[in-house]
What does this fold into?
Amino acid sequence: MLDAVRETASDIREMKIRGAGRIARAGAAAMGKFAENYCGGSLEDFKKDLGTARQTLLDSRPTAVSLWNGVQASVRDVQNATSLEEARDSVILNSRAFGEMSSNAVETIAKIGSRMVRKGDTLLTHCNSSAALGVIKEACAQGKDIKVYATETRPWRQGLLTAKELSEAGVDVTLIVDSAVRFVMNKVDAVFVGADTVTSNGTVINKIGTSQLALAADEAGVPFNVCAESYKFSPMTMFGETVMIEERDHGEVADGAALPKGVKVYNPVFDKTPAKYIDAIITEMGVLSPGAVYEVMVRQMGEGIFKNGDF
Ligand code: RI2
It folds into this structure.
């Protein structure tokens, strides 16, 4: 039963499944499937095995809170279940509901964000964010005649996926190396990127290099917009937890043969963009300023959260 969960976790770790929204949906779906196929004995056994499944998925990649939120949404009613059947059904239904909510949120962000794009705009995006690309494709479909610069995004080069996807959608897209960002910024009207995690003080954690885009945009007076479903908001950060930045294998940067002897490699794959560089966070609930994230989190979690100083 845990084999399928382990396989999903491994696909997430190896980035066969990637993108903060996609890993959240895959995590939730894996929990649902686990519950569907469960043939153990008691409610207590189920809770224990579900806990193992949950942890297996959460251990796959540490940075995107979307995965945590997707898995957590799937198991949230298990503690109130009085029978194995009730517990299993709740996981199955909640995981499906999360998947639907997540896909709808990406569509809604596309509609809202596209209104912020003007006819003839030149946009810049980084990495491969389905939320940000949704906005760009929707704006193009509305006939807004836009141009897009897509960063290569070393070391995984997700920018190639972005360029392909946008080109196939009929967008005029130009691929640039990451170090060209500041040079091209004076041709750009707005930046749209995705997010892996948004903290309670409005800091955005996204693909390494995002904060450099934000600095260059700030210098050039270009609006910097983040497209993020609200399940990318991290409740833990309200209670002082910091976001762990994933470091990946050095082979992603330079393989053994290309690496001179004695040279070390440091490969952090996300960075933090402070709220002061962010003009808008486009969510399925509407366009927020980074300073509004805290209030939204409190509302989402309910006022009672502070009673015990924990959640
Ligand atoms: P969506 C990706 O992470 C990128 O950082 C991207 O900006 C972010 O997830 C959000 O993607 P990775 O899995 O959820 O490529 O908008 O490391 O698709």
In short: The CA atoms of residues 122 and 147 lie 5 Å apart.
